[in-house]
Amino acid sequence: MRLKLLGALGMAVFLAACSDDTNKGATTGTGAAAQTTGVTPGSEADLVANVGDRVFFELNKNNLSSEAQATLDRQAAWLAKYPQVTVQLAGNCDDRGTEEYNIALGERRANAARDYLVAKGVAASRITTISYGKDRPTATGDDEEAWAQNRNSITSVR
To answer: How sure is the predictor about 38, in pLDDT bands with cuts at 50, 70 and 90?
Structure first.
């Protein structure tokens, strides 16, 4: 009887020790506005959760919308706060068009984001660019919603 009682008590203590009511890493919305807990400052997770890691483009365009500029403004401020961080900007396209066209367009998109960050004071030496064209879609599907999500430049911490 004592053995069963000790076993049950031990299990209760074990389960109590394993429970954790803290909210680690929870994010809300697009991840650009709300501060989160459990995210390492200056990390990729911090960039994604608290600043926003991507900007979007119109079909066959590489000019920055006001919304894209606002995201890049937040990225520039974040990069100023963490001067040791380097980033890579990856230009992406939807799956329409030739491979050559999309590689060139993705490059123009990444360069547009880079040029904007440099104009905001981020050292060019902290930024690399790459174009994936249509090879790395972030959304699947053959409709405008998916295509719009794939026309982007994504900022990654290196």
So the answer is: confident
